[in-house]
Amino acid sequence: MSKYILTISCPDVKGIVAKVAGFLADNDCFIDESAQYGDASTGVFFMRAVFETEPNNNIDILKSKFENIAQQFNMNWQIIAKNYKPKVLVLCSKQAHCLHHLLYHWSNGHLNIDIPAVISNHTTNQHLVEQHGIEFKHLPISADNKPEQEAKIWHLVNFYNVDLVVLARYMQILSPDLCDKLQGKCINIHHSFLPGFKGAKPYKQAYDRGVKIIGATAHYATQDLDEGPIIEQEVMQVNHSYDASKLERIGQDIENLVLRRAVEYHTDARVLLNGNKTVVFK
Fold first, then answer.
1. Residues with catalytic function
2. Which CATH number belongs to the domain containing residue 60 in this structure?
3. What gap in Å lies between CA 65 and CA 80, rounded to an integer?
4. Residue 141 reports pLDDT greater than 70
């Protein structure tokens, strides 16, 4: 049997689930799992269904038939193979904890992705990347060459036919132009439980303020810095005995977890954009 994932977003009206389920049944497809959500505040309906069918059931013909239903309900939709490995381009700077974590889970098959290359504005992690048999691209950046450097990044996105860009503690702000080109396809990890403690030293700020909880946020990159649709967040309780160094160690562990989850959810077609928010079918 061949497995596929169907995702849908459209205006919320009666009969969508019945129509979709009926279509799949009529075309010899068996639904393994299904989740749906109607957002009353936006009037938008979201659905994710995993179905299986016989290998001789031509998926292109199935997609062509489904287009009639999609037009009827004004759907944004896609059907992808469940075993498809999205191509993920990772960007990093000097800090390696998020990169380490992603490479570990990729190498162990915990992430169903392909990493064709890692881009960095430093050479600090070149050996780590190449140890995993992944191509390392050093693209240094300065105030003078940022447009040229980002043009090279965009070239590599297209060269590798990339499905997702992951900013694994890439300590550069993407230009509005590149953010627009990567809309909904670029995940950033922010080193705090947004919207608090923004800036270069969030753990020092947290320590100075005596926080009792710290966290991290994975979100889609947009022109508005650290304001993109949130995919995943996690927090941990701390207390007065934790100094800034210990807060940083704990915070980096949370960053690893949150970024890996966000990549997993996105590449498994579990994240649907809902304006400035997301619907995540976990």
1. 226
2. 3.30.70.260
3. 15
4. yes
Counting the structural domains of the chain, the total is: 2
End position of a domain, from candidates 81, 105, 134: 81
Domain boundary residue, one of 49, 81, 113: 81
Contact 204, 244 (CB under 8 A): yes
Full-model pTM = 0.92
- State the DSSP H helix or E strand holding residue 59, giving kind and residue range, or none if neither: helix 59-73
The residue type of 91 is: L
**Do residue 75 and residue 141 come from a single domain?**
no
| Residue 274 reports pLDDT greater than 90 | yes
pLDDT in tens, 55-95: 999 999 999 999 999 999 999 999 999 999 999 999 999 99
β-strand 88-92 against 117-120: which pairing, if any? parallel
What per-residue string of b and e applies to 14-51 under the rule 16 or more CB within 10 Å gives b?
eebeeebeebbeeeebeeeebebbeeeeeebbbbbbbb
One domain, residues 75 and 177: no
CB 274 within 8 A of CB 44: yes
Q: Which two tokens stand for residue 73?
A: 């309900």
**119 and 51 both lie in a single domain:** no
| CA trace torsion 240, 241, 247, 253 (10° rounding) | -110
Q: Which amino acid, one-letter code, is at 169? A: R
When pLDDT is cut at 50, 70 and 90, the band that residue 255 belongs to is very high
